[in-house]
């Protein structure tokens, strides 16, 4: 079967790998002109670690992990209030791995050297018949496939074309996130420094063998800015963090000159079904749990393995495979999406004017170090439970 996959992230690349292993003929289309490198830190946890071992890349991922040695928690003026290990701060336990997104993508693409990839193009139209899917591209000539898989992220183009407008499925938390690269002028060596309060956080870190550093901001705001209006996005960040000391004023100045700038809202995608005819959604495109869950990459890797495995078991009977894919994944996704909801509610709790919020804010003011560590440790326990809330079939 000829399968078109939209998106060259962890979801799309791992799907292509498993489809080839199972005898299918995948083609991947990616709007970027080349594989995106760098990016942000991602974690692979729980059941997803078994997927890395099935693929034979677990040791490669371990060798390329961020190797974060620690994290410093600071107050508004830059005074250190607590120090944690890199794993404890990142909610990692046991064999959990943290790796740069671009590095993982490179490792994945190296496993499928003969994969057909169409870079610098995207899908413009999809039409289905009982026998096939006709795909029109923005640049290349139309082609016919047996199946189409949308693995193209939170703002999925495939979902928009086949299932309808994003607003039907997206549930935003009112939390904004941005990440960009800056010179490593603080000389950080596998260290992260973070200022956190209810409703906003600022951090900077540098990973193993990285000559640069990355800054991230997360904050609650009900102000809407257009997805591609970089100037408005950066002005919103400046407004929210203008009263924070430490290195934040320098970060805000460097932001406009950053060679990269990622900005988005924390949101979940909730759909009754992830497939329609010969088209199916995978990863953030179909069931994004939001960055608040810490599980996005793991959900993508597991979903790719399960979808390709069910297609192989069903011998190409895509309707049966898609139904089984949902049956296997839906309970796991529900647990992880609820994890994201709980994390978002805590981060945004200052918006709720009640006794519990008042108490939290008082405790954060009196003992910020202890409170932050308490919330991190509690989140770690929840993440570990959610990360292992699936029993994988052996499709090999």
Keywords, separated by commas or semicolons:
single chain, 396 residues, alpha/beta, seven-stranded mixed β-sheet, six-stranded mixed β-sheet, 13 helices, globular
Describe it.
The chain is an alpha/beta fold and 396 residues long. Helices cover 38% and strands 26% of the residues. The protein is built from 13 helices and 18 strands. A seven-stranded mixed beta sheet has the order 5-4-13-14-15-12-16, sandwiched between helices. Helix 1 runs parallel beside helix 5, helix 7 packs antiparallel against helix 8 and helix 10 runs antiparallel to helix 11. About 2% of the residues have low confidence.
Low-confidence stretches: 354-360
Q: What separation lies between the terminal Cα atoms?
A: 18 Å
> Percentage of helical residues?
25-40%
- Principal-axis shape: globular
Gist of the model:
With 396 residues, this protein is an alpha/beta fold. It is built from 13 helices and 18 strands.
Q: Helices, strands, pairings?
A:
Elements: E1 2-6, H1 10-21, E2 25-30, E3 41-44, H2 47-55, H3 58-63, E4 70-74, E5 80-85, H4 86-89, E6 97-100, H5 101-110, E7 116-119, E8 123-128, E9 133-137, E10 143-145, E11 147-150, H6 157-162, E12 170-183, E13 191-197, E14 200-206, E15 212-220, H7 230-241, H8 248-255, E16 261-269, E17 275-276, E18 279-281, H9 284-287, H10 296-313, H11 318-347, H12 355-366, H13 368-387
Parallel strand pairs: 1-2, 1-11, 2-7, 4-13, 11-18
Antiparallel strand pairs: 3-6, 4-5, 8-9, 9-10, 12-15, 12-16, 13-14, 14-15, 17-18
Helix pairs in contact: 1-5, 1-10, 2-10, 7-8, 10-11, 11-13, 12-13
């Amino acid at each position: 079967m000829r399968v078109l996959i939209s998106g060259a992230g962890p979801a799309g690349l791992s799907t292509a790998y498993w489809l080839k292993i199972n005898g299918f003929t995948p083609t991947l289309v990616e709007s970027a002109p080349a594989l995106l490198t760098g990016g942000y830190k991602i974690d692979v946890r729980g059941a997803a670690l078994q997927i890395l071992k099935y693929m034979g890349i677990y040791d490669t991922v371990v060798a390329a992990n961020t190797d974060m040695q620690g994290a410093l928690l600071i107050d508004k003026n830059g005074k250190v209030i607590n120090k944690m290990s890199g794993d404890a701060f990142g909610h990692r336990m046991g064999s959990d791995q943290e790796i740069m997104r671009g590095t993982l993508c490179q490792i994945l693409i190296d496993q499928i050297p003969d994969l057909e990839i169409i870079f610098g193009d995207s899908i413009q139209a999809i039409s289905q018949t009982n026998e096939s899917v006709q795909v029109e591209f923005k640049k290349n000539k139309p082609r016919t496939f047996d199946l189409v898989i949308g693995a193209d992220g939170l703002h999925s183009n495939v979902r928009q074309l086949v299932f309808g407008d994003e607003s039907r499925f997206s549930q935003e938390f009112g939390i904004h996130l941005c990440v960009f690269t800056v010179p490593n002028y603080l000389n950080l060596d596998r260290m992260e420094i973070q200022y956190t309060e209810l409703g906003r956080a600022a951090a900077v870190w540098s990973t193993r063998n990285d000559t640069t550093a990355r800054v991230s901001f997360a904050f609650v705001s009900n102000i809407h800015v257009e997805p591609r209006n970089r100037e408005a996005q950066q002005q919103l960040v400046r407004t929210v963090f203008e009263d924070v000391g430490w290195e934040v004023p320098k970060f805000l100045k460097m932001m406009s000159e950053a060679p990269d700038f990622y900005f988005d809202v924390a949101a979940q995608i909730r759909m009754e079904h992830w497939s329609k005819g010969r088209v199916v959604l995978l990863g953030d495109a179909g069931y994004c749990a939001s960055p608040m869950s810490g599980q996005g990459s793991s959900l993508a890797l597991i979903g790719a393995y399960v979808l390709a495995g069910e297609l192989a078991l069903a011998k190409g009977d895509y309707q049966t495979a898609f139904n089984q894919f949902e049956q296997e994944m839906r309970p796991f996704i529900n647990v992880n999406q609820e994890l994201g909801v709980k994390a978002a509610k805590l981060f945004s709790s200052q918006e709720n004017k009640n006794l519990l919020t008042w108490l939290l804010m008082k405790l954060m003011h009196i003992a910020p170090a202890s409170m932050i560590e308490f919330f991190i440790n509690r989140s770690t326990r929840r993440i570990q439970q959610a990360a292992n809330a699936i029993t994988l079939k052996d499709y090999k």
